[in-house]
Amino acid sequence: MSKKIIVLGGGLVGSTIAMELSRQYKVAVIDINDLSNSKFRRDFGITSIQADVTDRKALEKHIADADLVIGAVPGFLGYEVIKKVIDAGKNMVDISFFPEDPFDLDERAKHKKVSVIMDCGIAPGISNMILGYHNSSMKVDRYECVVGGLPIIREWPWEYKAVFSPADVIEEYVRPARYMENGHQVTKDALSDPELISFKNIGTLEAWNSDGLRTLLKTMKVPNMVEKTLRYPGAIEYLKVLRESGFFSQHEIEVKGVKVKPIDVTTQLLLPLWELKQGEEDFTVLKAKVLGSTNLELVGYEYLIYDKFDTKSGIHSMARTTGYTCVAVAKIVLEGLFDKKGLIPPEILAEQPNLFPKIISFLEEKGIEVTVTRIY
Fold this sequence. Notes:
By secondary structure, the chain is α/β, with parallel strands linked by helices. Helix content is 33%, strand content 29%.
């Protein structure tokens, strides 16, 4: 009998996950919006359920017979939704980029004897797995990662599009960036330490500090670690102007007698401007270096992952790289290849032999380019 999977969230990434998993499993998608006329229901036979995933009783009802739950909701909902899924006693694979400390849920998940594998996208996700995989077989001294997803056509004023909620993207512009330098955790403003990086077939992109290391700061004892976000050159200046002017603020202000959060207004304004519409092409690029030693011999690896809009399926690159990573992890859980209980970051999953190569192989099967170079 085919296993049943419930996907929470039917956006561009959630629908991509659902469509891919439906090739092998029975899949249903829960979303607060009516998705009855969606492509995945029409062409893939996926069940759509209109419900509020923050409603505990409704959620428990709809996931009661699920073999696995996939979390693909916006970051501001992610933590509480994961908590509800844990309490329902269900295993989960999640991609939401929530700001809360995920390890606060670890004991809760262990008590319910469930596995919750978090941050299963491209970054966080594959970026974490690269470090976790190599850290299990070598002494890593330095880890560096730059990553970004961008539209191929640069349109004024933003030169940016996204498959995620604008609120999740804006988090990268306001959340202080934490990184490791000579064994000490350092915190700087997001958008700091800019540098220009050239990529073959792409050109020059702008990189700056963002808080992308997340769980790596606790799970990996590596003295030097940094992750930066990539955008087209010039992005930093206008983002700083908006940030410093208060457009990204969570603090309420009063406008004509009405209290509003500036971030809510900004998000609503950006939603149509940042939306990747059907047929609009995008690309994703990630470059990561892992440097260290094995038996006192210097060892270094560089990963370059590149993907672009799939003209055949019409699936955007950021949805592909995020969604297919999630699918690969979901299959590992469903096949019984990983059953550690608790809150599991992706780097811990990758420490288990053969799992990370299995995930990379799946991405390559889906047409995502992965190049690994031995530096020394």
